[in-house]
Write a structure and sequence with these properties.
About 50% of the residues lie in helices and about 10% in strands. By secondary structure, it is an alpha/beta fold. The chain has a 7-stranded mixed sheet with strand order 3-2-1-4-6-5-7, with helices on both faces. The longest helix is centred in the C-terminal third of the chain and has 29 residues. The protein is elongated and about 80 Å long.
Length: about 325
Amino acid sequence: MYNDKKIAVVVPCYNEQSQIKLVVDGMPDYIDKIIIIDDKSKDNTFEIIQELERKNDRIISILHENNQGVGAAIATGYKWSRDNNIDIAVVMAGDNQMDPGDLPAILDPVVNDDADYSKGNRLFTGEAYKTIPKLRYLGNSILSLFTKIASGYWHIADSQSGYTAINKKMLNVINWDNMFKRYGQPNDLLVSLNINNAVVRDVHIEPVYGVGEKSGIKIYKVIFSIGWLLVKSFLRRMKQKYIIRDFHPLIFFYFFGMVFMLVTIALSIRLGFRWYEDGYVPQITALATMFSFMSSSLFILFAMWFDMESNKHLK
């Protein structure tokens, strides 16, 4: 136990036969249960997990009959933790990229009831931009920016970090069967947490790379799939939090901002077409385009400001 709290570590795995033993060996003694979920690996990962389970009574092994994605594996571990009266569930990847030395920093905000959910932030520690591969650092930064807008957690900087801790209350509140099943799971979960007014804490951790891990992420695919997920999640949060559960006028600001944005795009296309066809810019169309652009910008910026004010108590 850790400060009288029962702690479980959820370890999602897929083709981690070379790394999973290192993850288990590095697990601190205060961890009560290690829930390892094999997402139908193609190598010998599950056989190694079973061998480790026979030697370590803290380990619980779970095998997915079909490959469902890392988000589904995490959800399986969360459901086990919920059903077995775990106080706090931590997620650590099966590729040994999460330093056990950072566990106390991840756990303390949740253990001390300062937060419902804590999340590791790898982007601002030391010279993280030199440690993290540049393409991944850039992609992560872009996704984190849009996740701020979608989730309402404007203070969370590293949205893609999977090194997290969640308390019993949220384990019981979130519907894990509806959680996004693949690499967008951290983004989707932040939206669900915000809808349920969970306090989320950003915790600085050290980025770990070059320990033998093999990434299965295709950046060019993930950015578009998670991007679409963020659009849908943003609309879900607006509907659930600011229309159904409560009402806030920022809905109107976002609505009119989007309307004027569409008008701006339409006018810009017309402007470009007339310039190409006739060789000049119609003054009325140019003025209308500028007015529409300014209106869209102001409406959206005010909506973001209202959203930030509405959620500032959740950090």
